[in-house]
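Review form for a predicted model. The reviewer records the input and the model, then writes brief findings.
Reviewer: anonymous (R2)
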Amino acid sequence: QVQLIESGGGLVQAGGSLRLSCAASGRTDRAYTMGWFRQSPRKAREFVAATSWSGNTKLYADSVKGRFTISIDNAKSTAFLQMNNLKPEDTAHYYCVAREFYGELIVVPPESVLDAWGQGTQVTVSS
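Model under review:
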């Protein structure tokens, strides 16, 4: 079983940047699709971004395209989410997720197939 630890959240002004990290531990001898979901008090949990283990395919929610970039260092079993031009509506608790899967991404993985969730890290964007 894999465990996920996020870091990098915090408070930033609108237009600023943050970089989230997600380190996997445990069964890191497997390949994982890794990604991020987020949830705020006023919204249902939503998909943000995901990357294949190879890093060759990436998917983004429309709301973050052009502003967020997901990447992966599979040698270190760590994924990153670079968030630029942050907006107040990006304020949420961000959760790292992983699914044991070696292939490329075609569709957003539904929550029901995810193998692991991190505890999450808070991102707050002030206006």
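Findings: DSSP finds no helices and eleven strands in the chain.
Further findings: Residues 7 and 22 are 7 Å apart (CA to CA).
Recommendation: see findings above.
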